[in-house]
Write a structure and sequence with these properties.
The chain is mostly helical. The chain has helices spanning 9-25, 30-48, 51-70. Pfam families: DUF1414.
Length: 72
Amino acid sequence: MPIVSKYPTERVEKIIKQLMDVLIDEKAEADLSLMCLGNTITEVISQQVPAELQESIVNNFTQALQQSIIKQ
């Protein structure tokens, strides 16, 4: 079953492009890019997700990441 987002595709794609533009402008290699994005994810979860939901969010995020990579 396809996942339906509550956010418009255009908005998601715009933000992804902006994030990628920064990494490209910085000439960040894959490991540095992943480290920066990982630290950003940690910050978002720590600051914007209630503590009691963090473990569940991390598990769901990890599963979604694995599925998106394996399907490619």
